[in-house]
Prior knowledge:
The structure holds two protein chains of two kinds. By secondary structure, chain A is an all-beta fold.
Amino acid sequence: DADVTQTPRNRITKTGKRIMLECSQTKGHDRMYWYRQDPGLGLRLIYYSFDVKDINKGEISDGYSVSRQAQAKFSLSLESAIPNQTALYFCATQPSGGYQETQYFGPGTRLLVL
Amino acid sequence: AQSVTQLGSHVSVSEGALVLLRCNYSSSVPPYLFWYVQYPNQGLQLLLKYTSAATLVKGINGFEAEFKKSETSFHLTKPSAHMSDAAEYFCAVPGAGNTPLVFGKGTRLSVIA
């Protein structure tokens, strides 16, 4: 079984709808991240969390919110989806040792907002 | 702020040829540098990382990278490309002030038979 899972893997939604992307991990890592990937722009950080009570905004948090329900679960919500949120979204985990530690990525969720 | 620049959004090489993917970091010397690889329809995975212990770093699948302070570079190389190396490659560095990784825009590697 995969260590970092994301659901759904693909999602089509309409402008204005609220959607949630979920991430679960079995690696036991405290740190979790949400990124979006756009062609030519690389990965950009949306939110990150160092533990259940710690949530931090990343580079592009506007229009998004997150919830860390447990050490193993970190969800990303789009309160009112818009077409320019069409992208590939990745969740990642990392041990608590610091930024030199390896990040482990999920398989991604491909989101299309019509 | 710390940043990395990847020169060339797309690199195409013949099978068996040298692979060279370029990454330059911003002026302040970073404690760590990373190369991640994304195979088609997959998430990213670590290829190799520099941690100041050695300037030449060997990674998985025959890749290596050399940290050159004088050139502010951390270029990724592989002597002989294989079809399975076709992927997107990302250079990354920790952000300023102990903040999360900052990724480059990526370089897509195509390998031609």
